[in-house]
TrEMBL record:
Residues 32-54 are annotated as: Disordered. It comes from the Bacteria. This is Pirin.
């Protein structure tokens, strides 16, 4: 998970961040009187999925 973006891969997270920053795919928050918060930069390394303990 990265900044409340959930995906199966690093590419899913990258796409979710781009969508958020472009104002697509995600709805607006009604009652919030300000600009959308910018998502933080992704780290310079690919995100790795967390493994569930078995």
């Amino acid at each position: 998970m990265w900044w409340n973006f959930i995906g199966r891969s690093h590419d899913d997270i990258v796409q979710a961040r781009e969508d958020w920053m472009n104002g697509t795919r995600f709805g607006e928050v009604h009652g919030y009187d300000g600009a959308p918060l910018p998502a933080p930069e992704l780290p310079n390394v690919p995100l790795k999925p967390r493994r569930r303990p078995r």
